[in-house]
Amino acid sequence: MTNKKLLVTGGAGFIGGNFIHYILNKYPDYEVFNLDLLTYAGDLSKHRHIEHESNYHFIQADIADRSTIMEIFKTNRFDYIAHFAAESHVDRSITDPEVFIRTNVMGTQVLLDAARRYGVAKFVHVSTDEVYGELDFDPHIFFTENTPIQPNSPYSASKASSDLLVRAYHETYGLPMNITRCSNNYGPYHFPEKLIPLTISRVLSNWTIPVYGNGKNIRDWLHVQDHCAAIDLVLHQGDNGEVYNVGGHNERTNLEVVKTIIRILGRSEDLIEFVTDRLGHDKRYAIDPSKLINLGWQPAYSFETGIAQTIQWYVENQEWWTRLVIAAQLNKQ
What residue stretches are annotated with the NAD(P)-binding domain (predicted)? Predict the structure, then answer.
């Protein structure tokens, strides 16, 4: 597996950026192309240590810009596509659904057309467990790859739509592909609007921490490095046309997550502020990753080890997230 060209869309984002680091470390002969529009959540500073490497290339482009994407594919002739680029924040999808449709649905279609026209060995579409809807609080029930798709937010509906497009291009045109659906990720370089980095940054700043509703909503937490290892395995060994769920069996209520971070940082739970619940807030997500485990994947992080490592990273890299928090506040003014 040498001299392969890999296109990573959304490589300036959280998961895509970590995936680029993972791939370049594991496959030094790969040529990696990072395609990103650099919207509010895109940040290239995470790639400063590789930006001058001869096998890393950054391309600023909109995945929904058909003519530009076609020219990029024509020029570079990629072997693999790892498609992370997406609008992903549920709250933002509730206030502005249209941008999610444009990027997540139309952008994915453009990439599929380009992959079909110029040929790829594998198109891996990185999706989310949110396309399955919600589970009740029965701890014996999990999402499987056969769970019906029932999205409940504009964000998850846009991701479900893109999943169906990827499947259709496989069934209709024979495009080699896999779809991965992951649980909630956490780890280094996570944009500080999501629960874990938001909580860490606010605790370190001694600010109140907003918790939706009663905080009893449950999520299954997956360290981003375990997710990267899963996508790597699916990219190279996944059975063509298959869907793989990626989850860590690390279910926690949102309130438990917040209290864990507060405890590790030695602060008071008085920082917690319960706020009006999110519209359509799904009760619980939980994934059965048996199919992926049978392919050869095992998570390396427990939630306890992963959250401690993540908190330490945010403590040691306060300049990185402080800059993003300030920029976000300025954009709201």
Answer: 7-310
Best CA proximity match to 61, nearest among 99, 42, 35: 35
Residue 150 sits in a domain whose CATH number is 3.40.50.720
Q: Active-site residue among 87, 129, 134, 232? A: 129
Nearest one of 147, 157, 106 to 243, comparing CA atoms: 147
* Domain-located, residue 312: no
Owner of token pair 């590790």: 264
155 is catalytic: yes
Q: What is the pTM of this model?
A: 0.94
Active site residue 27: no
CA distance 319 to 29: 32
Q: pLDDT tens across 226-272, in order?
A: 999 999 999 999 999 999 999 988 999 999 999 999 999 999 999 99
Distance CA 76, CA 189 (A): 28
* Total length of the chain: 333
- Radius of gyration for the chain, computed over Cα atoms and rounded to the nearest angstrom: 19
**Which of 43, 62, 87, 130 does the annotation list as catalytic?**
130
Domain holding 28, by residue range, is 5-186+223-248+281-301
pLDDT band at residue 114 using 50, 70 and 90 as cut-offs: very high
In angstroms, the CA 104 to CA 271 distance is: 35
Does residue 1 register a pLDDT over 90? no
The answer to whether residue 33 sits within a structural domain is: yes
The whole-number average pLDDT for the span 142-153 is 95
The answer to whether residue 206 sits within a structural domain is: no
Q: Is residue 199 part of a domain?
A: no
Cα–Cα distance measured from residue 122 to residue 13, given in angstroms and rounded to the nearest whole number: 21
pLDDT (mean) for 279-293:
92
Active site residue 136: no
**Counted domains in the chain:** 1
Reading the block at residue 330, the tokens are 């300025």
